[in-house]
Amino acid sequence: MGGAPAWCSRQGGRKKMRFLSRVLLVACLGAISLLCWRWRASLRSPGRRAGDPVARNVTFTADTFLHVQQLRKRALRTFCRANAEVDGPLCQGSTQQAVTHLVVNPRFEFVHCRVPSVGAEAWERLLQALAERRQPTAETPVISTRLPPPALPTEYLRDYNLTSIELVLRSYTKVLFVRDPFQRLISAYRRQFAGKVTFSDFIHRVLGSRGREAEVLWKPLVSLCCACLVRYDYILTYGFLGQEVHHLMHRMGMPGDVVAELAGPRFQRSGGRVAEQLASELSERQKQQLREAYGWDFAAFGFPGSEL
Length: 308
Hints:
Helix content is 53%, strand content 6%. It is mainly α. The termini are far apart. The relative contact order is 0.15.
């Protein structure tokens, strides 16, 4: 008996090739799906944020820093133009009321919004350490001669007279520190409420005290710092502080070695992966309510890696 016809062999070969092609296609799709899943999981990990140069060991150059600042300020201005009602009662009141949380440093001619858990505390310690150094703290000394100290021994801008407030806002360098709202909530919880109530109960309290009754610990930054009223010169985000503060201080005339010596230990990021765990304790309704409560902050500043 003779073997199978040649055309039959060719047809069988084609079927085999089509089968192998399908297997290869399925394998490729599976590999791509796995890579996408791992990428999305890395974005949700507090330790590795997308685009976070600190987490990914990418170095901020001076040009990158300035470019990022332009993008952030442009995004904020766009948000403010589209949301004329965003300022709220605090920012629409008197000038002194609008600058309630702004702190002045006349020696270095800085103004910043004092908000817990966004890096402002470390910034203030850095400025204090710079002021206490015996040797010159800048290549050109940055000691203000424009403005006399206020009548009251205070560092808050609200206690200056109206003329001095306007001068400070016009001539001093204004810095806004921002942080993912969910990370701010976690910090507030661990600072004052951990061990006393559950995180879910704490969030219930936060959601029940919105508006004027909201505490500084968790009030949205857009309204707390009057971000659409005060023309901030720099917007620094929590995950980037170490590198961004270095470039900011260098632009203000501080020698690089001094900034590196003093700024490094103060802006190290704290470890821990508690965000996912605490987020899992919240209901979907609570998460949605938090997204709505901090909608302005998300729209104005981004935070694409947030658990919310």
